[in-house]
Structure formats: structure tokens, C-alpha cells
Design goal:
- Keywords: Membrane, Transmembrane, Transmembrane helix.
- There is one protein chain.
- The protein is of the alpha+beta class and about 180 residues long.
- Helices cover about 45% and strands about 20% of the residues.
Amino acid sequence: MKFALSMASFSWVIFLYLIHNEINVIHIEYLSDYIGIVNIFIFILICIVSGYLSLIFINKNALKSTKDELKISKIYPVYTDYMPIYLAICVIAFELNKITANNFVTILIITSFVFMVFHISNVFYLNPVWYVCGKRILKVENEKGNYIVIASKSDDYKAMVNIKKLKKIDEYVFYKTKE
């Protein structure tokens, strides 16, 4: 599950790399004057669809519902804490254009390495589409440790003492389902 979510979030890094290096996926002769705009539209559409599908995927396939409630000592949004890591990986993607890659295998190896860094950094939940879809990424601290909760922005979490109805994504990341 974490791998699929990482792929959906990493699609934005690939999008930025393709745009930065002016790599066109589609070449349509009668749209040659607008090919850059058409490709940007296609890339953004792919990123949005993969982000939305990843939310559906989490809701349907999260490992299991937790039996315990997640007690809250402290709760706050994580965007300011983890976004620099996400942006650093995007900067790495921008810098890849300085590497002379003459064949597809070299590009694939370099991209795989950057993806591994992305996956290991555990920032797969920083998908911009989720933010637009009304999800917020929250860091919950309690006596047992620190956890990440993907939750709806409509709930008032600062007033809560515990969070119920969680689905486990991995050891420290949970998805809050509707009550």
C-alpha cells in the first residue's frame, strides 16, 4: 500500500521534471503550436487522477481498522515540518537535467534512486491533490509516540481528546474514516 501511495505522490516530482526539461510525451502535428500546453494539461490530469485514485485506494484497502483509539496529547498540521523534504526531492529532480543521460536505462536508474529516497523519507502522504480534496495531514503526539493521521479538514481536531475510526496504512500512519 505504501508503495502505491508513494507512486501517486511521486508523480508530481516526475511532472515537474518533465516540464522543467521540456519533455513532451505526445506529439500531435496539428497541435504543434500548443504541444507544450497540451502536455502540461495531460501531466496535470495524470497527477490529479492518480492522487484521487490513491485516496479511494486508501479508503478501500487500508490494512485494517484499529481497535484502539489514538489518544491525543498534541496535534498539529505537518505541512511545515515535512514539506521541505518533499520540495528537496523536487529540487533533486530539477538537477537531474545536468546529468547527461543518453539512454533510457540510465534515466530509469536515476529516477528509481530518487524514488527510493522519496519512499524511504516517508513523505508519501504529502500529495497536493489530497489537500485539494479536503484532506489534511496531522501529526499526533501521545505518550506512546508520534503518529501521522490523514484526516478530513472539516473536523475540529484541536478540541478532540482521541481519534476513533482509524485505518492503519503503516506502523505510524493512519487514515481517518468518516464516523
